[in-house]
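Field: COMPLEX_INPUT
Field: COMPONENT_COUNT = two
Field: RESIDUE_TOTAL = 390
Field: MODE = joint
Values follow.
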Amino acid sequence: MRRVLTILTVAAMLGAGCGDDLPTEPDPLPTPAAVDVFIGALAVGGSGFYSFTLFEPGSVHVLVANVRRSGTNEPVTAPLALGIGRPQGTGCSLTEGERMVTAGLSAQHRTTLDRGVYCVNFADRGGLTEPVEFLIRIIYPIERYMPAGGTGTSTFASTLLRGGVASRAFGLSNAGTLRARLNSLSPASAVGLALGVPALIDSTCLRTVIMDVPAGATPEITAEVDGGDYCVVIFDRGEITTDSVNFSIDIIRP
Amino acid sequence: MVIAAAIVGASGCQEETPLAPSPGAMTPPLTAESFIGTIGAGGTAFYSFNVPVDGPVSFTLLQYREDGQDTTKVALMGLGVPAGTTCIVASSVTTAAGGRPQFTQVVPPSIYCVRITDPGQLEGTGEFLINIVRPK
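Field: COMPLEX_OUTPUT
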């Protein structure tokens, strides 16, 4: 791991103070699901892990939402190994078989676990030829997950500058098929259109599903998604010849 | 790098429950393992382990060297739970290397971690050896 940034929404389970015993029981109050985001980097042949505590038995969904060339927003499609285990020593000892996954917008690993401390392991098993950065979303227990978001259709209309990027983040209450339809682009230009996930640390939309849009086309890009936070992005592929173009995209939620 | 070592823990830290059982109390069988590694200036490292039954966990910072030489500088050593990409520590001690446990705490069954951090004293690379004694 060259660099790791961690965002935790789970509360630490330990009490404080020398002499205090650690708590033996979970909080009796129902708690909402935790949504942890594991952001990191993998070197060629590298691995990294992320630990979390499941305070009650339940299902865990792990979504590898983005893998990209380090320092860029170019997706990498090489399969990487995703596994769940227990923290042990300086690593994560797998308790379930690894699966090779590519980035997507629907959880690639779904499992049910007893309460306890677990880890998600992410590793290159020989498919990488260059370092990558990634974003993994871990939700647990899924039984308590109530994603904030909406349903129906909304419109994202704005201006895309030459060489620029324009994106909009939105929430989804439901799983299903997410669609983004490019309704208009004026003057006609070749652009890129993508669905992805918000980077969280800035306003970047990390691209997961990408489409090259030829000049004059008004295509629709689709992806199977879980409930949660996503984004749509339109970007210049270096072919916009005017100072800017005006666009309109319908975001059709499941 | 991790190696096994057999170290018998004894005594405790201030109000902590000592390893020696109180009259009538049962101390579970204990086992020991070692955490060997390096940290840079201001750096940190952690090691996770399982505690299968209630019992005392103790840590001994047995060796602490800076650039290959034994040092009397102190490190922050604590007990926590693996969370995210780190070990979230709830209780800790600042200690130099020594032959007796500098930290002991009774814990319920779970997975825990020991974390060592340089509080700003190292100028070079710190090499450490921590013995962990825990219920077997």
